[in-house]
Amino acid sequence: MYPELCLACAGELGQGEKYICLDCSLNLPKTDFHKNHGNPAEQVFWGRFSFRSVSSYYYFEKAAGVQQIMHHIKYRNGKDLAKSVGFWYGQELKFFEDYQNLDCIIPVPLHKTKLISRGYNQSEWFANGLAGALNVPVQNDNLVRMVKSETQTRKTRYKRWENVSDIFEVKFPERLENKHILLVDDVVTTGATIEACAQKILALNCGATISIATIAFAS
Could you tell me the pLDDT band of residue 3, with boundaries at 50, 70 and 90? Predict the structure, then answer.
């Protein structure tokens, strides 16, 4: 009486389908950024800090259903969906050289009060899915958000950077020495939060290399 519906198109899921129907999974707007250096996601961070590669799974498009997927992941207890998306993306990334020599995956952290109110960190669950596909461990206790920042919605690029420029800390620097780190988040827009995390890691001068992966890219 209450069939499960596709989170992208709201159509009824068929046998063996979970979260997203086969038609949507084939037609959602994938970026394929991981196939090309110099892609639009990399261009967001040009001149801001040193990195190895940047990729995103989907373009953030409302009409294509990606916005609905992201809303479910972030606000409707979509932990398992975030993990599934991470696994699907990891299955693609593992065939490319930049993602074959990773040492650890670090999700962009939430402040503890936000984590308590939401109940989970969507980026951590995305990281768990990637880890399962790439066979790379997740460090979810090393990078921490020390200050609860204001929401980034409707802030300018500079205000977004100013809002998060010095709110993260690394608890165990020795774990990151000479490591290739995959830093992951849900969506990249201006890149301010990811930049703040990367800068905090690179400031350790411990030989770490940063790559970035997100669920979606908002142009």
Answer: confident
